[in-house]
């Protein structure tokens, strides 16, 4: 029996390159990519996507929609790493640890949409707490995150590693119109009633993310404190291979959060910090924006889908 054929459409971008790197030495699948001259040939791309078992799309949103529209073979399954389908009701959200049964839903799905890098941290922190009733769905959520410059794609890498790298900024806060494309995704999958305020930034490091969500205990249900929130997250991710909730004693000993500590992995660390005197809590997520935030997550979803191929 031949091994499943996996087509990476867009393997020259930051996400596609890392997916290819993670898969190229595997013997349980056959990889299909297109030569440079064929990558913009719509006919050749349509042939390739209809010939594969599973397609991984590492494309801009419009190109991802075009690729999906070219599928006529009903057996083809898709993992879309773009943001084109992340809030689409007919696509399965590719965050296996999000809720009980989500990994099984991904395994059986025909269409899987990979989470965005920032939403991976935000949804990972908020969804279990909202579902447990510890954080009200109408809480006025604000989210702050700093990503490595690879989150900008080729433009970010060129700015920091190209000829003008000496002039690259050390920090860029962006999305100042508060209309970042990840915000609707966060709201939907964290099950928030209101649109959260999301403030992203790029730092002068290649990859990695620190994302934080501050909470005021006075706005949470009575008796909810940092330990309650931590216990909920710890229970939710107790059996997760790639998400670790740091014990309270471990997080309380931290003096800073290093966005690069999990680079090269598909892991995510969640922490809860509690200021007892002022009744403030800070939730944090640390992970690789090109790992659990992109290519690592795509490969994790691929493995789940291959189990049902």
UniProtKB/TrEMBL annotation:
Tell me the domain of life: Bacteria
Mention one GO molecular function.
N-acetyl-gamma-glutamyl-phosphate reductase activity
What top-tier enzyme class does this entry carry?
A: oxidoreductase
Q: Where in the cell is it found?
A: Cytoplasm
SUPFAM superfamilies documented for this protein: Glyceraldehyde-3-phosphate dehydrogenase-like, C-terminal domain, NAD(P)-binding Rossmann-fold domains
Where would I find the Semialdehyde dehydrogenase NAD-binding domain in this sequence?
A: 5-106
UniProt pathway: Amino-acid biosynthesis; L-arginine biosynthesis; N(2)-acetyl-L-ornithine from L-glutamate: step 3/4
Q: What is its EC number?
A: 1.2.1.38
Q: Which positions are catalytic residues?
A: 117
Catalytic activity line of the entry: N-acetyl-L-glutamate 5-semialdehyde + phosphate + NADP(+) = N-acetyl-L-glutamyl 5-phosphate + NADPH + H(+)
Question: Which keywords does this chain's UniProt record carry?
Answer: Amino-acid biosynthesis, Arginine biosynthesis, Cytoplasm, NADP, Oxidoreductase
User: Which NCBIfam families has this protein been placed in?
Assistant: argC_other
Kindly provide the name given to this protein in its UniProt entry: N-acetyl-gamma-glutamyl-phosphate reductase
Gene source species: Paraburkholderia phenoliruptrix
């Amino acid at each position: 029996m031949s091994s499943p054929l996996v087509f990476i459409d867009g393997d020259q971008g930051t996400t596609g390159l890392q997916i290819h790197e993670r898969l190229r030495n595997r013997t349980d699948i056959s990889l299909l990519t297109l030569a440079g001259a064929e990558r913009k040939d719509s006919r050749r791309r349509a042939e390739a996507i209809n010939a594969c078992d599973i397609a991984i799309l590492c494309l801009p949103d419009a190109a991802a929609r075009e690729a999906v529209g070219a599928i006529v073979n009903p057996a083809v399954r898709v993992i879309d790493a773009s943001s084109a389908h992340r809030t689409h009701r007919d696509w399965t959200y590719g965050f296996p640890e999000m809720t009980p049964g989500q990994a099984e839903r991904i395994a059986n799905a025909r269409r899987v949409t990979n989470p965005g890098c920032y939403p991976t941290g935000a949804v990972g922190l908020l969804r279990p707490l909202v579902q447990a009733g510890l954080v009200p769905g109408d809480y006025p959520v604000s989210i702050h995150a700093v990503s490595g410059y690879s989150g900008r794609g080729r433009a970010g890498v060129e700015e920091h590693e190209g000829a003008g790298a000496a002039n690259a900024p050390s920090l860029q806060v962006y999305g100042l119109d508060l209309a970042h494309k990840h915000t609707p995704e966060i709201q939907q999958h964290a099950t928030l009633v209101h649109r959260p305020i999301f403030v992203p930034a790029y730092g002068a490091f290649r990859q990695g993310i620190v994302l934080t969500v501050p909470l005021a205990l006075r706005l949470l249900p009575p008796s909810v404190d940092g330990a309650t929130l931590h216990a909920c997250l710890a229970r939710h991710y107790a059996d997760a291979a790639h998400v670790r909730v740091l014990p309270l004693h471990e997080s309380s000993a931290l003096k800073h959060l290093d966005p690069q500590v999990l680079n090269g992995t598909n892991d995510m660390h969640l922490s809860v910090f509690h200021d007892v005197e002022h009744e403030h809590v800070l939730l944090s997520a640390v992970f690789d924006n090109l790992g659990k935030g992109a290519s690592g997550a795509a490969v994790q979803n691929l493995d789940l889908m291959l189990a049902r191929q």
